[in-house]
Amino acid sequence: MVASSVKILLIEDNSAEARLLQELLKQAQSKEFSLVHVKRLQAALQELNQDTYDVILLDLTLPDSQGLSSLPRLINHAPSLPIVVLTNTNDEELAIEAVRQGAQDYLLKRQVNVDVLVRSVNYAIERKQVLETLRTVNETLQTRVEERTAELVKAKELNQFKSEFVSMLSHDIRNPLNTILLAAGLLQNNDEQLSKEKKHNHLQMIRSAIKNVAQLLDEVSLIGKADSGKLQFQLSPLDLEAFCRQLVEETQLTLKDKHLTLIFASFGELGEAVWDESLLRHILGNLLGNAIKYSLPNGKVTFELFGQENTVIFRIQDWGIGIPENDQKQLFQPFHRADNVGKIPGTGLGLAIAKKCVDAYGGEIAVNSEVGVGTTFSVTLPLIKI
């Protein structure tokens, strides 16, 4: 809940705009606002050392700080304090990026009135409280994991898993949750001002974020089942070549602007056999996804299927960034990612899942990779004939 009295620190070098905001806040009837105005970022940092505030109003153009450079300094100085960015119309994209980096909301100066200003301040405080609650939940989870880890025999391995798991939660789950909160807030508070296209974009952001969280939870759940021996076979007759071709077609739809060539070829006789389609999707989907993700623009990925008398071999090859030799030793460990992936997104769960599924099949997975040359994964699975 937002308190009945709200103390605001305004960082704005334009005195006229500062007076306008002061007058607007005086018109608010829902609660009492008190505003302290400073013209420079350094003065704001000094003010935060001397007094406490409920929210910051931040102009992105200051004499001693330009653009987004003000934001990390304020967040580091007062991490629990919500920030609302003030911007001109032509700075809207910059303001949205500021929200992605930690601000709670943004206001276009020419559109500010008393209702918009009060609503934005209240929303920023409430949203920051939600994020602080999530942080507390993560800290509580970490404490519980630590307590549980102390009771287990393999303390070293489980401590490492706990640390990586909590880190993954705070990053890979918090980010889509922040996106959902931001997009939902924009839809709720700016419904009449938003165009149909912007509303659609915000809804797409929410759907995509929810999908990412759901996928992440599914992946963690699958690894948990595999570790506890509960990963079960569900075998049924399947045209393996047709299944692989369909998987390639589905994957091609995700290539978009990557300008990548994906080639499938099948060799040998497969005969009639039974397969677990879900496990195959986890294995091949993750390997294909990685091959595409780490390929260079205008590159190529090949997917080959070899039918033998008692086994089937899947070989997926790319000519991308490759995997450093030191990382290949830990390649199938959950949450491990190679040192050269840079900003390419990922959770480090895909190859771990593929390996768990291959092991459940009683098969083998091998990798051959060289940095700057590319990577080849080979999966050998037993052929279970009808």
Describe this protein with a few key phrases.
elongated, 14 strands, 11 helices, Rossmann fold, Heat Shock Protein 90, 3 domains, alpha/beta, 386 residues, five-stranded parallel beta sheet, five-stranded mixed beta sheet, single chain, 49% helix, Helix Hairpins
Which fold name is given in CATH as the topology of the largest domain? Heat Shock Protein 90
Strand line-up of the largest beta sheet: 2-1-3-6-7
Strand composition percent: 15-25%
Query: pLDDT under 50 segments (min length 5)?
Result: none
Radius of gyration: 26 Å
Q: What class would the helix/strand composition place it in?
A: alpha/beta
Would you mind describing this structure in some detail?
- The strands form four sheets. The protein has a five-stranded parallel sheet with strand order 2-1-3-6-7, with helices on both faces. A five-stranded mixed sheet has the order 9-11-12-14-13, covered by helices on one side.
- The longest helix is centred in the middle third of the chain and has 37 residues, at 114-150.
- A hairpin with a 3-residue loop joins β13 and β14 (374-382).
- It has helices at 15-27, 41-50, 70-77, 92-100, 114-150, 155-189, 196-227, 240-252, 277-293, 325-328, 350-361; strands at residues 5-11, 32-38, 55-59, 61-62, 65-66, 83-87, 105-108, 236-237, 261-267, 274-275, 300-307, 311-318, 364-370, 374-382.
- The N and C termini lie far apart (63 Å).
- It is of the alpha/beta class and 386 residues long.
- The radius of gyration is 26 Å and the shape is elongated.
- This is histidine kinase.
- It holds the Pfam family Response_reg.
